[in-house]
């Protein structure tokens, strides 16, 4: 590795790189080798299981993945299918009506030995930002100390307003101290919609001690 690449961070894979394939097939394709033009080889030491891949992640399926890919640590993301009935939930909809789904997410995370779980902030119609932050604390209690629960920020949506959709909201959540997943493609939309890029805050967001994931994708 030359000196120009020596300081690059390790980039881990997500099954969303192969949408439409089952989690196992996506993992197998990733294990064959994936290279990113800017970052080089994508690591398989940790792979995120995403909702873009069909198939029910039952207890047995998670145990089989952990046994088959022993050199890989897994973590779940967003609406990962841990129940036969697919459900679209987020940090704004955590309640007694959805507790069973998050209970199953927590159980699958334990079976996978996951160190983190991340989910989207959700919609303003369901709750306000302080309530969403409180929901993350409640979810963290459910998952326990060994698996960090992180909220992923979103972007402006005129048809259905979302939480964490502005630089101001991102800063408020960062200052709250809860764990975060920063999606650079979402921040790209925030910058375009607000017609400003707060580079100081951007740098702070991606390097904050409570930021446990930074998502990158090919959208400038």
Detailed description of the structure:
By secondary structure, this protein is of the alpha/beta class. The chain has helices at 23-31, 59-68, 99-112, 129-143, 167-176, 184-194, 199-207, and strands spanning 12-14, 35-36, 40-41, 43-49, 73-77, 116-120, 148-152, 179-183, 211-215. The strands form two sheets. It has a seven-stranded parallel β-sheet. A two-stranded antiparallel ribbon has the order 2-3. Strand 7, helix 5 (167-176) and strand 8 form a beta-alpha-beta unit. The relative contact order is 0.10.
Ranges with pLDDT <50 over ≥5 residues?
none
The overall pLDDT, averaged over residues, is 92
Number of strands: 9
Strand order of the largest sheet: 1-4-5-6-7-8-9
> Quick one: overall form?
globular
Give the termini distance in whole angstroms: 25 Å
- Share of residues in strands: 15-25%
Provide a brief overview of the structure:
The chain is α/β, with parallel strands linked by helices. 35% of the residues lie in helices and 18% in strands.
């Amino acid at each position: 590795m030359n000196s120009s690449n020596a300081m690059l961070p390790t980039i881990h894979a997500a099954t969303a790189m192969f949408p439409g394939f089952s989690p196992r097939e996506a993992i197998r394709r990733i294990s064959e080798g994936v290279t990113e033009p800017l970052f080089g080889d994508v690591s398989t030491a940790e792979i995120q299981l995403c909702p873009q891949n069909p198939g029910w992640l039952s207890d047995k399926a998670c145990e089989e993945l952990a046994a088959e890919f022993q050199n890989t640590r897994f973590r779940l993301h967003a609406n990962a299918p841990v129940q036969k009935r697919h459900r679209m939930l987020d940090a704004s909809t955590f309640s007694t009506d959805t507790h069973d789904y998050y209970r199953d997410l927590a159980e699958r995370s334990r079976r996978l030995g996951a160190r983190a779980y991340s989910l989207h902030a959700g919609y303003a119609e369901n709750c306000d930002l302080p309530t969403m932050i409180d929901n993350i604390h409640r979810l963290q209690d459910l998952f326990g100390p060994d698996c960090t629960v992180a909220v992923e920020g979103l972007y402006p949506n005129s048809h259905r307003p979302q939480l964490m959709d502005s630089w101001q909201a991102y800063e408020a959540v960062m200052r709250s101290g809860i764990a975060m997943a920063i999606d650079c493609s979402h921040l790209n939309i925030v910058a375009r919609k607000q017609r400003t890029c707060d580079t100081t805050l951007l740098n702070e967001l991606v390097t904050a001690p409570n930021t446990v994931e930074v998502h990158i994708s090919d959208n400038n």
